[in-house]
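Here's what a typical entry looks like (Nitrogen fixation protein NifZ):
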Amino acid sequence: MTEPKYQWGQRVSAQIDLFNDGSFPDQPEEALLVKSGDAGEIVRIGLHEESNQPVYLVEFAEHRVIGCLEHEIAPV
């Protein structure tokens, strides 16, 4: 696994708009989930097995936890 650039508990912001890729069945597919600039906190770090890259579970507003790749977030 590529070493994670960010740490659990770290505050980050979305660098791009994040849309529903089907992970949130209660929302329409392609619905806007988080806007660029929205802040959240990393609550877990996992691994995307196919690409061998870290996946950051980030809790944004309304307790919505979204899986993000490194290029999608940046420290606050």
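Residues 11-58+67-75 form one domain.

More examples are in the samples folder.
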